[in-house]
Amino acid sequence: MPAKYLPATGLLLLLLACVGARAQAYEPVVETRSRDALRGVEAVRVLVETTPFAAQHGLSAEVIKAGVTERLRTAGLRVLTDDEADGAKRLPVFFVRIMLFEVPCAYSTSVDVQLRETVRRTRAPESETTAATWQNGGHGLQSPRNEQRVLAGVFSFVDYFASEYAAAHRR
To answer: How confident is the model at residue 120 (pLDDT cuts 50, 70, 90)?
Structure first.
């Protein structure tokens, strides 16, 4: 094949790959998911981080936080507002991070959901720090691009946490 056709051939192969691409389910990447860690948790505050690209496409921290808060409250967990949580340094934090990037013909997403709590290190010297006591996350490639499906994927992680929380509290 003459060299002048190589760029066009590469573009054609890329287009064919994009047409054949399918949405993929999130794959768990972290194994810190013990229900035991959820026993006794009564209230949390919610913290959400997003990439600027996600916020530009309707997946802002505020939108995600509202959906997360609603789901956690439905599961029976008390969710404190930022004002209520100000004086509670040891209050667990339900943390959600969504990273959304545009790749050819798709979105690349990464979701991390954690319950962060104050923990005490027992080895010398003893100290307190914050650590994830429950965590779940995943990543995916979604084609065609659809922000509402990405949002549904984020909320599926929250729903999984809510079901684990309910099971830990036998609700």
So the answer is: confident
Task: Give the number of other Cβ atoms within 10 Å of residue 121's Cβ.
Answer: 11
Q: Report how many domains make up the chain.
A: 1
Asked if residue 77 belongs to a domain, the reply is yes
Transcribe 19-71 into DSSP letters.
Answer: HH------EE------GGGGTT--EEEEEEEE-HHHHHTT--HHHHHHHHHHH
Residue 15, pLDDT above cutoff 50: no
| Boundaries of domain holding 109 | 23-168
Q: What is the mean pLDDT of residues 98-108?
A: 93
d(CA 54, CA 107): 10
Confirm whether 158 is domain-assigned: yes
Query: Which residues lie closer than 8 Å to 25 by C-beta, 6 or more apart?
Result: 140
CATH number at residue 133: 3.40.50
